[in-house]
């Protein structure tokens, strides 16, 4: 008797489980499509006074371009600002600190800590690192990125090419899907990219993760029609 | 942008014309070796340059130092410096690796620039930028092996000054997208 019951139980529950799984799967897909669709459209509701902004810095040229962009953004709108750079890159955060300090001098106040924060993140892969060891370091980098994103939960993400930005953008996208936080993800392809998108740019483009992707050369826009051509930043 | 002739100041003394070579934070021995060859140094002297300063970065090839003599280029080098900007400002010609930072810093100063591409790099997307800017006549573009020909054939008068770009269009689109009013 007992055996028969077990048998009936599993036969009865199996289809239910499958149906539940399929339902969850379909709901997730629909939700992802809705998020992608919503992400492409400008935000409708009245904007808040300010948006918390995450700025992902890369090395050398990338940072210089990003700083050019931050300089022209209205700082009272894009506040507070959190700058993130790879833990192996000391120069970029220093440059951001110099920039923030100079903006404070203009404003004549001394509230640096309230408007800007500077954080470091583990890099998933160093230049030249083997693919095998990359798996381990990528997992650590992902966990660290998740921790940072839970802490920051930005409304706007600005990034322009370093590999560090990809995991952060993926997590931000997942937050949108789950409903933790809606963030607008803006990606500016580096001026060094004339003919092809970088790997980060390509992934964000193909996976529809970025809301807007800007490119600096007209040819690149023709190649990737969903991008926006904005001319040279440098 | 000055021509390739030796310019004399009022006292008739040959003015100092410096060539600044920079490899940024990279290791680019092929370029340092190329500028250290007799052919390139002679070509630079012929064009009227008097000093050669090499920023050699992480490279291991050490160029030969020499002091100024009649008709011979004075050569000096260093690995890194926090005053790259000053070196760029005082240079009459810049020979650089293809990093976008060095390229735009030099172009914004209005200095004649030769970009030399590092063919040893695996993912060599950076030559895209140099090629594009060379096509637009903002700089000259070459390889380490043919640097002396590039110097020989370059005509600084053909260069078109670079107009610095601007991030306003991006800022505007982002503001509009988020629903912020235009100023």
Automatic annotation (TrEMBL), chain A:
Membrane topology: Single-pass membrane protein
Record's keyword terms, sorted: Endoplasmic reticulum, Membrane, Transmembrane, Transmembrane helix
GO cellular component, one term: UDP-N-acetylglucosamine transferase complex
Protein's cellular compartments: Endoplasmic reticulum membrane
InterPro entries: Oligosacch_biosynth_Alg14
Main subcellular localisation: endoplasmic reticulum
Spans traversing the lipid bilayer: 17-36, 131-149, 155-175
Pfam families membership: Alg14
A molecular function (GO) term: N-acetylglucosaminyldiphosphodolichol N-acetylglucosaminyltransferase activity
GO BP, sorted A to Z: dolichol-linked oligosaccharide biosynthetic process
Membership in a protein family: Belongs to the ALG14 family.
Protein name listed in UniProt: UDP-N-acetylglucosamine transferase subunit ALG14
Naturally occurring in which organism (per UniProt): Papaver nudicaule
Taxonomic path: Eukaryota, Viridiplantae, Streptophyta, Embryophyta, Tracheophyta
UniProtKB/TrEMBL annotation, chain B:
Any one GO biological process: dolichol-linked oligosaccharide biosynthetic process
Listed Pfam families: Glyco_tran_28_C (PF04101)
Domain Glycosyl transferase family 28 C-terminal per the UniProt entry, residue ranges: 18-175
GO cellular component: UDP-N-acetylglucosamine transferase complex
GO molecular function terms noted in the UniProt entry: hexosyltransferase activity
Protein name: Glycosyl transferase family 28 C-terminal domain-containing protein
Species this chain originates from: Papaver nudicaule (Iceland poppy)
């Amino acid at each position: 008797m007992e055996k028969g019951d077990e048998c009936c139980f599993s036969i009865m529950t199996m289809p239910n489980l499958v149906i539940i799984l399929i339902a969850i799967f379909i709901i997730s897909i629909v939700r992802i499509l809705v998020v992608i669709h919503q992400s492409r459209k400008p935000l409708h509701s009245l904007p808040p006074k300010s948006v918390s902004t995450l700025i992902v810095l890369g090395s050398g040229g990338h940072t210089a371009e990003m700083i050019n962009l931050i300089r022209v953004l209205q700082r009272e709108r894009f506040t507070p600002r959190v700058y993130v750079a790879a833990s192996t890159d000391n120069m970029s955060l220093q440059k951001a600190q110099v920039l923030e300090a100079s903006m404070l001098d203009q404003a004549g106040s001394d509230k640096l800590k309230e408007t800007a924060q500077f954080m470091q993140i583990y890099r998933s892969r160093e230049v030249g690192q083997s693919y095998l060891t990359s798996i381990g370091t990528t997992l650590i980098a992902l966990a660290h990125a998740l921790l940072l994103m839970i802490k920051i939960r930005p409304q706007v993400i600005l990034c322009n090419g370093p590999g560090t930005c990809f995991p952060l953008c993926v997590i931000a996208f997942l937050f949108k899907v789950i409903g933790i936080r809606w963030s607008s993800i803006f990606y500016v392809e580096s001026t060094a990219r004339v003919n092809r998108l970088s790997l980060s740019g390509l992934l964000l483009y193909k996976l529809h993760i970025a809301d807007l992707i800007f490119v600096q050369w007209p040819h690149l826009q023709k190649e990737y029609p969903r991008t926006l051509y904005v001319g040279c930043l440098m | 942008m000055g021509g390739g002739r030796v310019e004399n100041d009022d006292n008739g003394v040959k003015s100092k014309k410096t060539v600044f070579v920079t490899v940024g934070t990279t290791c680019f021995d092929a370029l340092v070796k190329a500028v250290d060859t007799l052919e390139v140094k002679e070509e630079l002297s012929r064009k009227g340059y008097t000093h050669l300063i090499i920023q050699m970065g992480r490279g291991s090839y050490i160029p030969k130092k020499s002091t100024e003599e009649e008709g011979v280029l004075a050569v000096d080098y260093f690995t890194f410096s926090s005053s790259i900007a000053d070196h760029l400002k005082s240079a009459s010609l810049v020979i650089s690796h293809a990093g976008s930072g060095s390229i735009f810093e030099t172009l914004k100063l209005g200095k004649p620039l030769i970009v030399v591409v590092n063919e040893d790099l695996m993912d060599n997307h950076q030559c895209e930028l140099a090629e594009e800017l060379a096509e637009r006549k903002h700089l000259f573009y070459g390889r380490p092996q043919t640097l002396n020909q590039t110097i020989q054939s370059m005509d600084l008068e053909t260069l078109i000054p670079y107009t610095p770009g601007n991030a306003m269009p991006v800022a505007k689109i982002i503001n509009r997208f988020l629903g912020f009013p235009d100023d």
